[in-house]
Amino acid sequence: MTSTDLENDGMAQRELTPLLTDAADGFEVGVAPVQAVMRAGGRRRARRRTVTAVAAVVLAGSTGALALTGLPGTDDPATPAKPAPADGRQVDEPQISHVGFGTYEGKQWGVNVQVWAAPRDRTEATRQMKAMNSWGLTPATTGGPSDLVGRTSYFVLRGYGDSGTRLVAFDTVGKLPRPEGTDIHAVPQPLTGDGAPLRLVVGTVAKTAKQVACHWKDGSTTLAGLAPENSAQRGTQAVIRSVHGYPTANWFVCVAPGSTTYKSAEVTK
């Protein structure tokens, strides 16, 4: 499921500021407010909802270093997110994994994935829905907390420069997709803003995939290689990474070189 752009709006900073401060490792980070108008789908009906969403990727400090949000206690924004506790009952706080970041036309971009563990009962689901609301996120259900029981929710967000945050994809599912072999699910997106050319590709591949080729309309190709498990982040234009809380697939990102746009993507290794 994909969404529309997120635009600037006001929001309370009680949840967001401590997380951004931790992730920025000493940089002073303020509130990154954004608003989303997204379509929440479901079996019974689809309806529009307007929600306020947190900025999942921000630029911090005069050095231009990219500060990606992390779980409390993340000291280095270049390290991967920490996994949930072994009992898996941290339903009221997401696991956040940074898939990749880099620079395009002098501005920094970043993509991360939030995964919310499946609640076991309505009590846990109620806690989770309240926590999602505090982040300004709405799960892909059409009902109340009971619809979250036994279902995992995920949200994929990208940031670019000071243009705000875009919700690339989100869903709430009983079973996470499990691609096999050369299966690929690619979601081409604008990188620089609403209505811009499709120069960002985000998607999932099988855990066994070692390389994704992103083909562009100018005839060029960008290769995304598999990063080692739990390896530190490095600025890049393409990468495949694992995501905490999403054990059935790996996620990849590619950014177009120059002014070209998306043509296709495939698993090549």
Q: How is the topology of this model organized?
A:
Layout: E1 6-7, H1 16-24, E2 33-40, E3 47-54, E4 57-59, E5 66-68, E6 95-104, E7 107-116, H2 122-135, E8 152-160, E9 165-173, E10 184-190, E11 198-205, E12 211-216, E13 221-225, E14 238-241, E15 250-255, E16 262-267
Antiparallel strand pairs: 1-2, 2-3, 4-5, 6-7, 7-8, 8-9, 10-11, 11-15, 12-13, 12-16, 14-15
State the distance separating the first and last CA atoms.
27 Å
Total DSSP E strands: 16
Cα Rg: 17 Å
User: What ranges have pLDDT less than 50 throughout 5 or more consecutive residues?
Assistant: 3-79
| Percent strand | 35-45%
What is the ordering of alpha helices and beta strands? EHEEEEEEHEEEEEEEEE
Average per-residue pLDDT, rounded, comes to 74
Widest sheet, order of strands: 6-7-8-9
Number of separate structural domains: 1
Largest sheet entry = 4 strands, antiparallel
Report the helical percentage: under 10%
Our count of helices gives: 2
Shape: globular
Keywords: Membrane, Transmembrane, Transmembrane helix
Region (Disordered): 69-92
Biased composition (Low complexity): 69-88
Transmembrane segments: 51-71
Description of the molecule:
The protein is mainly beta and 269 residues long. It has one domain (6-267). It is 9% helix and 39% strand. The protein contains two helices and 16 strands. The protein has helices spanning 16-24, 122-135, and strands spanning 6-7, 33-40, 47-54, 57-59, 66-68, 95-104, 107-116, 152-160, 165-173, 184-190, 198-205, 211-216, 221-225, 238-241, 250-255, 262-267. The chain has a four-stranded antiparallel sheet with strand order 6-7-8-9, with no helix packed on it. Strands 10-11-15-14 form a four-stranded antiparallel sheet, with no helix packed on it. A three-stranded antiparallel sheet has the order 1-2-3, with no helix packed on it.
